[in-house]
Amino acid sequence: MYKIKLLILLLISLIVLSCTNIETQKKNNKFSLSYVGGEYDGLVLYNNLNVHLRSYNMLDNNSRYEIKSSIGHLERVYVTNIDNTSDREAITSELELIIYDKDLKCNAYRYKDKIYQFYIYASNEKFISNKTALKKIKSENTEELVKKFINTLMYENIACTL
């Protein structure tokens, strides 16, 4: 009895798998990365862009398209309740990327997006947990913004608008 149930489940799973459609990258654009400023945050952004472009086979240092990027993080404190017992710090990360066409010497594509997270922080500046949470959130925000950019970029038509 169990063998029959397992065979039926196997057959159903094979049918479901055969009906799925794996969508591949539509465009075959390759990009190079320019220098990213911004100290540690710029390094995190550059590494994320490098890794994700390589994983989709979209990185080529001799490409005519160059990605110029910048990221900024805005930190602000806000209080969520009346009795001021829960201080939170919100981190808003904003990513701006420009794809520059080196052959035509023009901006071929512009992308701008932002994301934010918050954490409850300890009131003393000496607590290392505040700094660790801030660093982790900035890194997570950067990675999420890069993922969204790469997913958008795969299906975009990159061309200069004259």
Task: Explain this structure.
It is built from three helices and four strands. With 162 residues, the protein is an alpha+beta fold. Strands 1-2-3-4 form a four-stranded mixed β-sheet. Strand 2 (65-79) and strand 3 form a beta hairpin. Helix 2 (39-55) packs parallel to helix 3 (128-153). The longest helix is centred in the C-terminal third of the chain and has 26 residues, at 128-153. It is flat. The N and C termini lie far apart (69 Å). The model has no long low-confidence stretch (mean pLDDT 80).
Summed up:
With 162 residues, this protein is of the alpha+beta class. It has helices spanning 2-19, 39-55, 128-153; strands at residues 31-33, 65-79, 87-101, 106-120.
From the N-terminal CA to the C-terminal CA, the straight-line distance is 69 Å
Mean pLDDT: 80
The beta-strand count equals: 4
Assigned CATH superfamily: Lipoprotein like domain
CATH-defined topology: Double Stranded RNA Binding Domain
Task: Give the helix level as a range of percent.
Answer: 25-40%
Uncertain regions spanning at least 5 consecutive residues: none
Topology:
Blueprint (H helix, E strand, L loop, with lengths): L1 H18 L11 E3 L5 H17 L9 E15 L7 E15 L4 E15 L7 H26 L9
Parallel strand pairs: 1-2
Antiparallel strand pairs: 2-3, 3-4
Helix pairs in contact: 2-3
